[in-house]
Amino acid sequence: YFEAILKKLMGVTCVVSWAPPAGKTWSQASDLLRQRLELLGAKKTGTWSVDCEAYQLQSGSKVLYLVQSSEHPNSCYGILDSGTCITTDTSFEQIMAKLGNYYQPRRGAHTEVHP
Fold first, then answer.
1. What is the DSSP letter of 109?
2. How does the average pLDDT of the chain come out, rounded?
3. Sign for the pseudo-dihedral over CA of 66, 69, 72, 73
4. Per-residue buried b or exposed e for 26-55, using 16+ beta carbons within 10 Å of the residue's own CB
5. Contacts of 27 (CB under 8 A, 6+ apart)
6. 42-70 pLDDT, tens per residue?
7. What are 4-23's pLDDT values in tens digits?
8. Taken in order 89, 94, 97, 101, is the CA torsion positive or negative?
9. How far apart are CA 70 and CA 84, in angstroms?
10. Spatial CB neighbours of 108, under 8 Å, sequence gap ≥ 6
11. What local confidence, expressed as pLDDT, does residue 15 receive?
């Protein structure tokens, strides 16, 4: 199971692969990650949100994750389950809609994080 979150490090946004601990909700996992970052000296300076939508290839098991962050509202991150990541503008959502014959939104795979 693969999900992605965005975090800001010294002015640079990084896309990081991260799965929640077993038995934890995304809200609990988000709180746990925030606490760990604070233990490392991070300080909360504002609010942000991350939205992740999973799309599955119709003819196989390949998955594409479309990730958006409130810190970069004009960008989308496309992440393949292989780990390949691309950065695009928000028109990538429209491209995914046109690829509906090939990629379908995965049921129950929409994740939003608002710490």
1. -
2. 76
3. positive
4. eeebbeebeeeeeeeeeeeeeebebebbbb
5. none
6. 777 777 778 888 888 888 788 888 888 88
7. 444 444 455 566 666 777 88
8. negative
9. 22
10. none
11. 60
Residue reference for tokens 């606490």 = 35
Number of residues assigned to the chain: 115
Copy the structure tokens of residue 97: 């809609």
Task: Assign 3-class secondary structure to 2-56.
Answer: CCEEEEEECCEEEEEECCCCCCCCHHHHHHHHHHHHHHCCCCCCCCCCEEEEEEE
Q: Are 84 and 36 in contact (CB under 8 A)?
A: no
Q: What is the phi/psi pair of residue 15, to 5°? A: -95, 125
Put simply, whether the predicted model's pTM sits higher than 0.85 gets the answer no
Taking the CB of residue 15, how many other CB atoms lie within 10 A of it?
Answer: 19
